Fold each of these.
Amino acid sequence: MARQFIGIDLGTSGVRTLIADEVGQVLAKASASVSSFTLSGVHEQDPHAWWDAVRTTVQKALHRIGSHAQELAGIAVCGTSGTLVCADKAGTPLGPAIMYNDARGHNEANFLRNTGHSNVSSSWSLPKVLWVKRHESSRFTATRYLLHQADWIAGQLCGRFQSTDYSNALKMGVNLDTETWPDWIDADVRERLPTVVAPGTHIGEVTSATNNATGLLQGLPVIAGATDGVASCIASGLGRMSDYNTTLGTTLIFKSLAETRPVHPLIYSHKLPGAVWLPGAASNTGGAWIDAWFPDADLQALEAAAARVLPSRYAAYPLTRRGERFPFVHQEAVALISPALSDINRFAACMQGTACLERLAYEVLDQATGASGGAVYSTGGGSRSDVWMQCRADICQRIFHRPACTDTAMGAAILAAGGTDFQSIQEATRQMTHVSRTFYPKRKMESVYGEFLALIRPYLDSPE
């Protein structure tokens, strides 16, 4: 029987579990939602709710493959980048997780930037640690492990919380050249940080307690995962230098392949084993406006109607929270869109505005990396829409590929395969990813893009 691999994706709004075989055939999928607490820049989630969702989705996925669960060869987890969990020596969370887009670490991020670490923003986990240390000293003192979302779930699976992959560790300040924690991180923070390993590294085995909770076989290898952005990049099948993987989910996450690491104040670089660099960035703009502004709409009907009015004559910047981080930084940025539009015109304008923001991001990334307008391998929920994919291709004037499986959890499954049955992550990616459809630019939309740039000009002229 073909060997099988299980990937878990911990997203902003829920958990997705996927099982795939060694040629990338998806055998089972399951999802469960997770609620958040949000208020005035605060965004928290309960780690126990993640675990409950993991247990539920794993049980459902295993039920769907039945006796073939015996062929499972490994499991890996990806999660949101920069989300912080403070845990005690037993791995028990000490309060809610501070999510990646929680803004409480703004002052701490400014401090780090002012002391020479220019790429740091409040979305990083390290400023969140410094905020906890300053404002919740009792929680910091009780903390044994400073973990990311994927680290904590992987620890739940194998009963060990001593590891973090260098993809997640990037926003904690890891030195990617040495794959170690640098001396400039405070000693009392460093002593609470787990050991850094490469994505795809064997970090433990499923415990008997996890077997009882999920049905996963005891002894199943647990493989170090990555951030959701890196996992999406892997799932896309990205393999050529200068091409991009873009995840259009709640936010926009950009990655490209490069042989060297570019230097740019708004761009950070992940890497994969084999010294493959993944320069990229993440925007606060994305698909969050769909749930925020159209919570009860028939999205399929609305999208079909919006297709008839695209290109839209209305410029829109569809930001659902205060503040932008890429392709420009402005702490006070807010949505810019006419409030008097019909639902159809508002929906179309927001689809178009997201694509315009995406084009601006590629221009910044191209300049930094020396790229020349490569193709885009698109993952995330937004890539499922034919209308949106064509709109993005037209506005960005790039070829857009839709992978056969657009789920970020597929990237986690590929990491599990690369750490067990394949010689490398790259080999597993080549064997397990496929393109299902390609979208070519059909018309130039320079006037639409120009109107968008004019709309956001105050943010571009006065960055913060």
Amino acid sequence: MNQVELRALAKINLGLDVLGRRENGYHDVRMIMQSIYLYDEVKIEKMSIPGVEVATNLDYLPTGGDNIAYKAAKLLRDEFRISDGVKITLNKHIPVAAGLAGGSSNAAAVLFGMNRMFRLGLSQKSLMDRGLKLGADVPYCIMRGTVLAEGIGEELKPLPDMPKCTVLIAKPPVSVSTKAVYEALDSKEITAHPDIDAIIKGLEQHDLRKIAGAMGNVLEDVTIPMHPVIARIKQEMIEAGALGAMMSGSGPTVFGLFASRSSAREAQKRIREKALTRQVYVTNMHSVRRNQHGG
């Protein structure tokens, strides 16, 4: 096997709570992660010359040691003393620095693909352990599906599949620093926590309205005052018929859950007409039981 082509899926957070800050600067979280059909195409090829090479369709992305996909390839090459070089081509569609785990998903795809290509024999758990060295979201991006994440995001427990629905993703043209958002959160008291257990109950009952009604993200209280356009996009989605709309991760991306594709299309049209953002995508949930990694 000389090359592997994979789909690196984006994720959204159906619920995100922060329980506290550790001495090492990491935060204890409790969140529900969900993968969606918005993805980057990741191609991994063997090279006769040693080393790691990364190419991407986005000229502003780093392609050297600062790129997390590069780090993932180097980690496995070094550990298993792989003599072949590796070329990684990232055709990116997931918005960058958007709270959708695009980089982490790229790294997960590289670990998964190199394990298959070089027949390393690593289990999913072994891949996830290595992924954690690269970033807190990488283990989840290897597992995918509907998952409860605790600890710093590395303690993962699969949940019942999300009910079928249409998802609208809107990424406004602003940049958000995850580090700055968490620092701002640390300087204020969290007075309202999302009801993660109510979302889990909704999943167990396969009740889309219950899930949407219980969604919450504690980081909205920090990011929305910095970027009010997030609240405006949420409002447009709700007015167009979203059962629920929320910021994903530390933002700035907003997602809405819709019972019908036509109402999601209507929200997409309204958001574009009001020039809130051009990056608006209609998509679906991803179920691990329907489609294994590598899609």
Amino acid sequence: MRFSQDWKDYELIDTSDGEKLERWGKTILIRPDPQVLWSVEKGSVWNKANAHYLRSKEGGGHWEEKDLKKKEWIISYKDLSFYIRPTGFKHTGLFPEQAVNWDFMRERIREAKRPVKILNLFAYTGGATIACLKEGACVVHVDASKGMVEWAKDNARISNLQSAPCRYIVDDCLKFIEREIRRGNKYDGIIMDPPSYGRGPKGEIWRLEDSIYSLLQRSVLLLSDDPIFFLLNSYTTGLSPSVMAYLLSEATGRRGRVEADEIGLLVTSSNLILPQGSTAVWQK
């Protein structure tokens, strides 16, 4: 399992009873996590949480604030900065386990020693976008949520990247891919982090398992003649790293090298690693 040991502003302190205790800068939050299937004794540090996300029996949930002084604050990873904003659907706007992927992308861009163009699909609040921009790449950032794209712009600004070469696009990713194919545009690197489930503009249901292969096949057509990577990330429970590697191998015509593994976070109280998703990477 791959995980970063370089976080200073984030810490996964403890896990128990379907929840994780996290430190985001100086703020401590308790959030649910379906991977936490064990029940161990909770120490007094759990009582120091500034806010606790509680699920509702009707679906969704809410934050029970104990001492949450700010609705947003900034944390950093190396030379990247991000706004943390606890949302009504338990997320904070950042997936800290993705730091290992940010490091990988930056290293590949550095090694290329040439101008690199990156496409970030389902780009959320722009963690990967900012990492690539920081290394000098030109990025096209695509997400269907206007709010998430604006959040990504905020993150770029506080990372001093507001003038970096990035196009922020609010659009359906599949429709954008098809337009780019028709236009003949190409990218040296593609990042894809599709949701497990969603609804289209006409209410149609979108499931990752039903659509992922065709999505990969179409996206591969956007790779340049000398690409540096294609990174596929997933939080879908049934999509194992081995399956993701197989999908990516087939979609790229079995050319190049594919590696896949879980990514996770170090739990400081136990020194164990909590799985938080999977990543498959293709390289030429």
